[in-house]
Structure formats: C-alpha cells, structure tokens
Specification:
Layout (H helix, E strand, L loop, with lengths): L14 H4 L7 H6 L9 E5 L6 E7 L3 E2 L4 E2 L5 H4 L22 H6 L9 H4 L4 H4 L10 E2 L12 E2 L7 H4 L7
Parallel strand pairs: 2-5
Antiparallel strand pairs: 1-2, 2-6, 3-4
Length: about 170
Amino acid sequence: MTAPPKPVSDQEGFFWKTKTLEEMSDVEWESLCDGCGRCCLEKLEDEDTGRIFFTHVSCKLLDAGLCTCKDYANRSEKVSDCVRLTPENVRTINWLPPSCGYRLVAEGRDLYWWHPLISGDPETVHEAGVSVRGRVEGTELDIADADLEDHIVRWPQLLPKQARLKRRPKL
C-alpha cells in the first residue's frame, strides 16, 4: 500500500518552502514574523504539567496598536527574559502560537492567506483577527506578576475561523 500523494501547496517555490530555516538570510528570517504580537504576551507555566497559559498582558516594549516592538534592536538588553527566536529554538519552544509563521515553517506547513508574505499586506494579520491589536489589557508595568493569573485568556492559542480559511474572505 502506498501513501496518498502529498497535497499540492500554493506556496511551492517560495523561499520558506525551498530553504531550511538555517539557510535563510536575516531578511528572510525576519519576514517569517507575521506581526501578530502574540509571542509578546506574558505567559504563565504550570510547574506540575508544563502547560502554558497566555494572558492579555503584554511586554512593556510592545506597541499593542502597531503590534511591533518599541525597541526591537535593544529588546534583549531592556527585557531580560525576551526570547530571540532562532532556527534551533523555534523547533522546541512550546509557547509559540499555532499561527506563528516560524512554527508553521519549522513544522513544514504552509503559511496562512493572511500572512504578509502571502497577502503582500501587513494589515491582513489584523483583518483575520490573529493579532493582539485591541486585545491587550495592559503591560507588565501595569499589572503585577502576582495578578497575572487573573488575566489568563484562551484566544492566543486559538485561530479565528476567518483565519483558517484557505483564501481571503470577500468583503
């Protein structure tokens, strides 16, 4: 018995389908980020189970309206626990959202229609409801670590229905 044929990808020939993560240039690597800001949300880990819980509290450097870092070049110096994504660690980090471009490519999966590399438009990540825009309730400066449990939310680990579509919905 033979395995069923692999489904044809709409993205054959694009660099993330033809190069390994290690072969990508710095510009290609950075472009895998969809600009959702979900990885910049504060997370809690259950010490007994290892389960990750997202909050709607962001890093102090996240501009929640633009979904960008206010000081990307110096983020590691300003935020001691900021994790720089690398080809090695994206394969093992258990808190990357299921929609994350780095995670998808590391798993050999296609990017979604709303990813800027597919749509050509950085606004589609917001249009699809994937980004943190309008959902952040405060920063780590506003909300004490002891209170983070009161701010746990499920949406960062979920993918909105419109984001799961194969193509951009007609408006």
